[in-house]
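seq/struct pair 1
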Amino acid sequence: MNDETAPLNPEEMLLWQSLGRLAHALPRLLEGDMSRATGLSMTEFAVLLTLGQAPERRLRMSELAAATGLTPSRITRVVDTLRTHGLVTKERHGPDARGNITVLTGSGLDRLQAAQPAHVASARHRVLDNIPADLVPTVASVLAALTEATLSPPDHPPAPENGAVPTA
């Protein structure tokens, strides 16, 4: 048995099960908080926030999808909804007009700024107030590294279990 298949020790099991529960419950709770307070979904808020932080408040659709962790089809649907409400616009990118750029409108910026207090209150209530202040930098660093490792493409595919060389 190698390290990858060894049973989890009690601390690892607690971490794994707690992370699983959190991964299932937290999005639903944050979604409810945001929707009740602002009428925006967390996904819509994340798109507005990402655009609000981007240079000139604009990003290519592929960059926006990557920055928010959404699939290309999901980001298209979210942007189309936001565009219907006048919160973003879409422009063709470059001289060859391939790809789109999403631009935060003035109304979108206003909506983002109005929603930020509710977002911060939810983040504090649901997460930050439950982590001792002296541990926040460590937890933030660990979660950032975990997110990067999870969402980044692997450098190489995993080796087969039996050590055999894969064939095409």
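seq/struct pair 2
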Amino acid sequence: MLRYPGVEEFGPGQHLHEKTGEITDIEFDDAAAVTGNPEDNFIYTVKLDNGETPSLNFRRHDLKKVD
């Protein structure tokens, strides 16, 4: 279970703040070539607990694990 904490005040993901869901797909790119952190290569698709799958993709820093 994951939670989207939503740190930006305004933006396309504003309506998703504090929503919870599960990762349903993981894609990869080469963002680490820019950031230097290989964990940045992962792009997550999340299905929310309400059944919605947002058209946004998330990076690791966008999501927090719920215990």
